[in-house]
């Protein structure tokens, strides 16, 4: 749960799973966030865009290992979560089948 304007998650890669060939699916619920996606190195240029409640983001194929993170939350941009905030549901395959 992300609450408040100062809530964020720094740039990172999702590398902990054994199944790195499988996509990561992210569902945003609640307040809008400013989401940042960069390159394969932390120092690569990046771009930010908004993810609103109900938006789905898929990082798959070549984009699977790009650095990404949440710059900030825009409080009050949704009434879905009581008291405000943002929930992110992340779906991933953690091991090869």
TrEMBL record:
The entry's keywords: Dioxygenase, Iron, Metal-binding, Oxidoreductase
GO biological-process terms attached to the record: oxidative RNA demethylation
Pfam families, per the entry: 2OG-FeII_Oxy_2
Ligand binding (Fe cation): 12, 14, 68
InterPro entries: Alkb (IPR004574), AlkB-like (IPR027450), AlkB-like_sf (IPR037151), Oxoglu/Fe-dep_dioxygenase_dom (IPR005123)
GO cellular component terms given for this protein: cytoplasm
Fe2OG dioxygenase domain span: 1-95
GO MF entries: broad specificity oxidative DNA demethylase activity; ferrous iron binding; oxidative RNA demethylase activity
Record Gene3D superfamilies: Alpha-ketoglutarate-dependent dioxygenase AlkB-like
Span of the signal peptide: none
Co-factor note (free text): Binds 1 Fe(2+) ion per subunit.
Cofactor annotation: Fe(2+)
Keyword Cell membrane assigned: no
Taxonomic superkingdom: Bacteria
Protein name listed in UniProt: Fe2OG dioxygenase domain-containing protein
């Amino acid at each position: 749960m992300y609450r408040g304007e100062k809530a964020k998650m720094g740039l990172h890669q999702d590398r902990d799973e054994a199944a790195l060939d499988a996509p990561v699916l992210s569902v945003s619920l609640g307040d809008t966030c400013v989401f940042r996606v960069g390159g394969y190195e932390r120092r690569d240029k990046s771009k930010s865009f908004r993810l609103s409640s109900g938006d789905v983001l898929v990082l798959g194929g070549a984009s699977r290992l790009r650095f990404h993170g949440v710059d900030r939350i825009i409080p009050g941009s949704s009434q879905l979560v009581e008291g405000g905030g943002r929930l992110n549901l992340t779906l991933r395959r953690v091991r090869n089948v």
